[in-house]
Amino acid sequence: MKVKLYSVKMYRKCLIFLVFYILVAYIAVNGTEFDYEHQSKWYDDFRQCSFNRQSPIELNSNEAVISYDLPSLKFIHYDVPYQKAVRSENNGHTANIQLPTARLDSAYIVGGPLLNGTTYIMESLHFHWGSIDTHGSEHVLDSERYSMEMHLLHRNTKYATVEEAREHEDGLAVLAVLYAVNATVTEDFVGLNEVINVLESISEFNRSTEIDNFLLSVLLGDMDVDEFYTYAGSLTTPPCSQAVTWVVFSHPITITPSQMERFRRLSDGHGATLENNYRALQAKGNRSVVLRQKRRVLESSVQSALYWELLNKLKPQGELVANDGK
Ligand SMILES: [Zn+2]
C-alpha cells in the first residue's frame, strides 16, 4: 500500500508539472503572437513598438537631406550562389528565406551609411504585400505606396546573433526593395522567380522547403543601388527593436500582375489568405532622413547647347557655328 501511495503522489506531482509546463509554453507562444489587423495591440504587448524611432515612415524627396557625398553601398558575395540549399518557410506572417552565415563566402554589406569598418552579414529576407496592387509596401515614397517590399536583413558582425544584435542601436541594417506591379508589362522580372517558384511548396503556415544555388544579386536585377533613402529606425514587426539602419532604394522594380498574385496564394496561421502584412506608417519625429543621389549629368540637349556656345566663344570671329540647341 505504501508503494501505491507513493505512486499516486508521484502521479500528482507529474500532472502539476505537466500543467505548469503547458501553461508556460502557451504563454511563450501566444505572448509573442501578433497580427496585422490589431496593430494597436502591439503597443500593449511589446514596449518598444510605441517608442520614437519606429519604422516604417513616409519618405519624401522634398524633405530629405540630399547627399552626393555619402559613400555607395558595397555588396560582397552577393553574386556568389549559396552552395548549401537555403531554407524558405511560411511563418504565418510572410515568406521568409534564411541564409547560412557560417560559410566563408557569406554575403555581407559595407559602406553607405554604415559606420566605417563595420560589416553587416546577410541573415534573411522576406516580403510585405497587399491584397491589391495599390498597396502592400511598408515605406511610402513621395506619397506612393507600392505593391510589395522586400527586406534584406543584415546583422552587425560584432554581435553573434540577430537576437543579440537587436538589443543595440547599430545591431541591424535592412535593405528595402520596392516592387511596382505594372499591368501592361508581360515579361516577368526574372530575378524574383527563384523565390516565386517555391511559394507553392510553402503555401500553408509552417511549411518549408529548400532552394538550391540561391543567388542574391538577381533579386536586385539592374536596379540603381546608388540612390537610396537612409534613416535610423526599427524592426517593423514585434518586438519593434530600435536597432535598424534602414536603406530604402528609391527606384522600384517592375513586376507583372501574375508574379504578384503568387504571393497572395499563401495562407497564414489561421488558414486565411496571407496579405496586407505591412505595418502602418509611424511618426518620423525629429529624425533626419538622407537621400543619397548621384550627381546628374546635364540633360543631353542642354549639354549640347552649352557645348556649341562654348565652342562659338573659342572660334575666331567669322567662323561661328550655328547653335540650334540640339
Ligand atoms: Zn520586413
Automatic annotation (TrEMBL):
Tagged with keyword Ion transport: no
Enzyme Commission numbers on file: 4.2.1.1
Reaction it catalyzes: hydrogencarbonate + H(+) = CO2 + H2O
PROSITE patterns: ALPHA_CA_1, ALPHA_CA_2
UniProtKB keywords: Lyase, Metal-binding, Zinc
Catalytic EC class: lyase
Protein name as catalogued: Carbonic anhydrase
Source species of the chain: Bactrocera dorsalis
